[in-house]
Amino acid sequence: MTAYIPHTDEERRAMLETIGVSSIEALFSAVPEKFRFPKLNLPEPVTEMEVMWELSALADANADVQHHACFLGAGAYNHYIPSVVDHIIRRGEFLTAYTPYQPEVSQGTLQAIFEFQSMMSALTGMEISTASHYDGATAFAEAVLMSMAITQRSKVLVSDAIHPHYRRVLHTYLQFRDAHIIEGDLYTLAAQADLETACLCAQTPNFFGQLEALDGLAQRLHAMGGLFVVITNPIALGLFKPPSVYGADVVVGEGQPLGIPLSFGGPYLGFFCTKREFMRRIPGRIVGETVDKEGRRGYVLTLKTREQDIRREKATSNICTNQGLMALAASVYLSVMGKHGLKQVARLCYHKAHYAADQIAQIKGFEVWREKPFFHEFVIKCPTSVEEINEFLLDEYDIIGGYDLGQDYPHLTNHMLLCCTETNTREEIDALVEALTKMA
Predict the structure, then answer these.
(1) Which of 16, 26, 183, 400 is the most exposed place for a label (fewest CB within 10 A)?
(2) 133 DSSP 8-state letter
(3) C-alpha closest to that of 428 among 395, 383, 397
(4) Furthest-apart CA pair in the chain: how many Å?
(5) Are 362 and 289 part of one and the same domain?
(6) What is the C-alpha to C-alpha distance for residues 158 and 137, in angstroms, rounded to an integer?
(7) 6 exposed, middle or buried (CB, 10 Å; 0-12, 13-18, 19+)?
């Protein structure tokens, strides 16, 4: 341990004397005594070599998703990532996760972020995009905060078909604010919009994979002075109309499908796109293109002096920083795929999911939700518990099954959310159908 903490006892005493305390323990006097030094159930110390043996054994015990057929989605998706993505983001000049504090000297980083913004604006149909957020959930919460600030209202209407984790994050963000969150059926909520409504929030494809009919919702919100916030899947935008067509004021979502691996849940990438009129209200950073005094193209951070971030209630910068490495991965992915490649991925996802749904619907005891069109996820009602089915799939077929909807929706016990992406082969889907047939 001393090899990593080089201070001598004499140096520690000098530092403690300088700050006016007698011991290191005294530094923790503000912490209640019973919580200061809890007994930890730790094993006896071992050597670094033995630690590596233990970690290697744990790593070997992990299931490798590449050797399993994966039908689990629910917000994080197993897409194919072209090798060029990893090759570029691992270059020394790019291997950082943060926007530089002296940005103008890092023109390559700023250009990459500018390209990310440009492509996300083109993909969503919105006029401007920020330089990215932590993840889709925090981007959504920031969209609601911005809507409340713009409208000076506190009533927030939230569809209960929005990802449960997104809704929980929203409640966390607003728990100490004067906010009134109402959750329920999207179209019922839209009919209840009034002059006190800050925004109506929808997701399409929603958490159940279904495509929502958004026509007319924005017009009703705008007539009441409210805003329309839409969460979407960027891969779906390769095939379907973007929310901007339906009058969305803010479009947010999770950018993980754009060249970012599952990575046990992160780091991921939240995108945030909106109208130009809200530029001075948006959280996060924007990179702009300009020219220097000699007329050469250059990039700068726009509308974001550092002093702006400390203006307390007037500031727009919250938990919304750019994750430069993730934005770069998304930029490389989008540029490599192009609009035709993204459309091809979306088509493969759509057709494979519908093939799987059609096959499963023929199994006695299983029922596929068909009341709304869906993209690459769909819900099946199962004859037994989802936990039991998933254990069977993994143990007997090396298949990672779907998401247990009963965890978040008690009335959907024994309902599974299944996902198919371009990575799922027909053989894998047929094996899933075979396994479910045995469970019927």
Answers:
(1) 26
(2) B
(3) 397
(4) 77
(5) no
(6) 13
(7) exposed
DSSP 8-state symbol, 177: S
Dump pLDDT digits (tens) for 150-177: 999 999 999 999 999 999 999 999 999 9
Q: What is the CATH number of the domain that holds 416?
A: 3.90.1150.10
**pLDDT tens per residue, range 208-266:** 999 999 999 999 999 999 999 999 999 999 999 999 999 999 999 999 999 999 988 88
pTM: 0.85
Residues 356 and 393 in one domain: yes
Torsion of CA 418, 354, 256, 142, to 10 degrees: -80
Q: In whole angstroms, how large is the CA radius of gyration of the chain?
A: 25
Query: Which of 263, 298, 332 is the endpoint of a domain?
Result: 332
DSSP assignment of 218-272: HHHHHHTT-EEEEE--TTGGGTS--GGGGT-SEEEEE-TTTT---GGG-S--EEE
- d(C-alpha 60, C-alpha 58), whole Å: 5
How many whole angstroms separate alpha carbon 298 and alpha carbon 289?
A: 6
Same domain, 320 and 386: no
224 and 284 together in one domain = yes
Residue whose tokens read 């769909």: 378
- Structural domain includes residue 51: no
Chain CA centroid to CA 126, Å:
19
Query: What domain range includes position 185?
Result: 83-332
In this structure, are residues 325 and 95 in contact, taking their beta carbons and an 8 Å threshold? yes
Query: How does 187-200 read in b/e, with b if 16+ C-beta sit within 10 Å?
Result: eebbeebeeebbbb
Q: Which pair of tokens denotes residue 263?
A: 């990575």
Asked whether residue 286 is assigned to any structural domain, the reply reads yes
CATH number assigned to the domain comprising residue 295 = 3.40.640.10
How many separate domains does the chain show? 2
3-state secondary structure 272-323: EEECHHHHHHCCCCEEEEEECCCCCEEEEEECCCHHHHHCHHHCCCCCCCCC
Asked whether residue 249 falls in the same domain as residue 310, the answer is yes
